Amino acid sequence: MVRPAGAGSVLPHILLSAALAIMLAPIWFAIVVSTSSVSDFLTGGLGVLPGDQAIANYRTVLVTGASNVGLSPVGPMLLNSFMMAVAIAAGKIAISIISAYAVAWFRFPFRTAAFWTIFITLMLPVEVRILPTFGVTADLGLLNSFAGLTIPIIASATATFLFRQVFMTIPDELTEAARIDNAGPVRFFFDVVLPLSRTNIAALAIILFIYGWNQYLWPLLVTTDTKYYTVVMGIQRLAQSAESSPVWHLAMATAILAMLPPVLVVLSMQKLFVRGLVETEK
Amino acid sequence: MQAKRVTFPGRILPALLLLPQLAITAVFFLWPSAEALWQSLRREDAFGTRSEFVGLDNFRQLFADPAYLASFSTTLVFSASVALLSLALGLLFAVLTERVGRGRALYQSLLIWPYAVAPALAALMWSFLFDPSIGPVAKLLGRLGLPWNHQVNGGQALILIVIASTWKQVSYNFLFFVAGLAAIPRSLLEAAAIDAASPWRTFWTIVFPLLAPTSFFLLVVNIVYAFFDTFGVVHATTQGGPAQATTTLVYKVFRDGFVGLDLGGSAAQSVVLLAIVIALTAVQFRFVERRVHY
Known about the structure:
The complex is a heterodimer. Chain A is 70% helix and 0% strand.
């Protein structure tokens, strides 16, 4: 971009610093509170710098849990969140890549109908069919289980479209070569299609991991047993008690732990993340 | 919808490949949606043992219910505020980072990570900042003569959830605007520079019109986000209160269904939401077609 040199370029830095201050304020104060003691914020002694109770607070939420306000340890919840996020990401990619393969490389009756059926799921978010979906899941005996947390939300029109688009760019010559070599569709998938889609899979996996990790409404419906609580959903119990009892330090420690994995994924794999985000919205 | 020119023979294999996706779609998407449609036309008796066909009665009741209409307007105000604020801020931040030379990558990294924070967590952090008794922002406002208490003041509660929802969404818009700005032909900007157009004028006459397709696409995405993905913001903090001031449509369908156990009413609300999603998706796809010609 053509930009004025010299003095003109100081202003954007000043404005951006102000923007960053506002954008980073919530996280900064969350860190400050999560490392302070109860008396610090009850007596108004809360400063703008982190306190010295980090180890005590984080150990409390991770291992023993804030039992006085009904919060079980966050450690197992983090593990549940991780397993759910990985299962959702892997599940969505697996079932979408094979359906996209089927509609791209085969001609069969009802092919277009199958494609549109998948398309319709775009228009049916959980929120618009909340009670009946819960009903079906309950009827199948999937409440309080990992299957219930993941399977009902792993259909993905977006991922299927994305893979189909990627597949349409794979040259027909490769398929012809495979057919001349007598390689069947299964072999072709594993030897040619999968390696060629590697970057797309990685970019999509990042977006879907974040999507899975941040699920809130669905885990709230399907789990009543604390054994299956995920951390993003579990924190609401703490949030509601924070308004009446002095547990802000524990609530914030939990919040920091709950956001750390997806934030680290974004920051450490920024290029892939941006690519994934832009691709899934095409 | 076209297939590859060179395909594989066979019918069983593609059917097997499509089976998992179609089975999940049928069981967890199509069937429950059909059931919601069906239930929206029926009403259960007090014991939940029998239900009868009541036509559009549930809908008539819904739109005669002041609480539902209030929830509708709350949702509209909330969604419009979140969409417009996060678009404006995303665009502003993108234009600003375009104008800095050194440190651009650092600014970008620091501005994109809120995308990864769950809405419920964003709401929790902001509700601490605004906590009436100990929150630093609430204290500051109090000192400025603006007493803050979102636990009793409905308007303030709505502002709180708008701020929390916007904060999380700015990153997303920022990223797409950065990409949009990068796609603007340099020659146009150079021509403007040669004509000695001011940066302000260049922005409004060249940059902004060229970003219009991106902005429109983002507007739809943001409205969908504000409508459907902010359940966690409301549920984790205000719980729809005080006095229903923050009861959005999605929060209401959840509460009426799970707490109120009103099957027909909740199903009718689901159907209304369904109509909204379909309308938004249609708008989005019409636009995607237009973008191809752009």
